[in-house]
Amino acid sequence: MNKGTLVLGATATLAVFAGLLPINGAAQTAPATAAPALTTTAAPTSDRFTVPSTVSPEAAAQLNKLYGRLSHAPRRQRPQTQEDWDKANAQLTRIAEPTSTATADALHVTRTEDHLGGVPVLRIRPAGYKPGGPVLLYMHGGAFTFLSAGTSLAIPALLSTATGDEVISIDYTLAPRADWHMTTDQVLAVWKAVLATGIKPGNIGMMGDSAGGNLAAASVLKMRDQHLPLPGALYLISPGADQSGAGDTYTTLAAADPILSTETTSWSADAYAAVADQKNPYVSPVYGDYSLAFPPTLLQVGTREHLLSSSVREYQAIRSGGHEAVLDVYEGMPHVWLSLIPQAPETKTAVKRASDFFALHLK
User: Fold this and answer.
1) 264 is a domain residue
2) How many domains does the chain have?
3) Share in percent of the chain as helix, strand, coil (round to 5)
4) Burial (CB count within 10 angstroms: exposed 0-12, middle 13-18, buried 19+), residue 181
5) If pLDDT is split at 50, 70 and 90, which confidence band does 102 have?
6) pLDDT by residue (tens digit) across 326-355?
């Protein structure tokens, strides 16, 4: 079994969970012992699982396998209590952890647990790592309610390998146990601790996917408003930059998104922030004031995700403030495809462009 088969096979197994819970495309059907509050019902099959002919042959082959499993995924009822959320996350963790480990092992990255600013983090270093270069801070996806640094290794492992740099993955507290106030404060605590080691802010990049992309952008806005130094560059993958559910493709692509559903993403949004807070810039950075300082930003998104408008609007908001932003859109790609099909040409291109972006801006 080669590396590509190892990584894809494990990730594809997880992807059956995507129709159930709003998490980075990781998915699996629920076990028979699932809690009553998470009882499943049949999910309809639709052409949302049709792979467009315009993607690469490699991506098409991998996505067809993935979507074949997703097309049979059941749906879940909305978690009602903290116990429901914890059980759902524990269930997903049992599935995701072997995959995350396999992905990291295939790329030969090392992982070291640590704490910065009182927050748990995971230090991810590539094979042959040499200290003294830039540092990348990563915020994992999972709709603020699922996954962890240890179960979200694919993207930091890919970027660490491509750049040769250390990635520090922030293991922030999940909602609903923590809300947006606490979560963004945790990111800032890690940021201050990294700065305290003597690394220049311009030599630190920040990145995140899905909810982590939101958290990266929102935390930068909060840093700026607290008059803290800002990172040298920002990399956002399929960011959920608007938690209020606004945006054209939130409606027009809802039925075409094979990974996320607007219904389940709204559950997690409500767990993370009260409806009255969902247009606060620290919750939905698309509503931020970009007339003030903001770092150069690369946004990557696929045309088959209902969060496409989120990336477009965030890009336009940053550009309207006179800042550098690059919107890099991938034909036919689903939400956070880098973690789903890491060996596909579309992923390799995205990772190379991200690596080049950091190399250009981190000094």
Assistant:
1) yes
2) 1
3) 45, 15, 40
4) middle
5) confident
6) 999 999 999 999 999 999 999 999 999 999
* Residue pointed to by tokens 């903290």: 82
DSSP codes of every residue in 165-187: -EEEEE-PPPTTTS-HHHHHHHH
Chain-centroid distance of CA 127 in Å reads 23
C-alpha of 158 from chain center? 13
Its pTM surpasses 0.85: yes
Residue 42 has pLDDT above 60, yes or no: no
- The identity of residue 15, as a single letter, is A
The two most distant CA atoms of the chain are separated, in Å, by 54
Domain presence at residue 74: no
125 is a domain residue: yes
Tokens of 137: 């801070």
Q: Could you write out the three-class secondary structure of 57-109?
A: HHHHHHHHHHHHHHCCCCEECCCCCHHHHHHHHHHHHHHHHHHHHHHHHHHCC
pLDDT band at 100 (very low <50, low <70, confident <90, very high): confident
pLDDT in tens, 60-75: 999 999 999 888 877 7
* Cross-strand partners of 209: 237
19 contacts 70 by C-beta, under 8 angstroms:
yes
Mean pLDDT of the chain: 88
Q: Determine contact, residues 164/137, Cβ cutoff 8 Å.
A: no
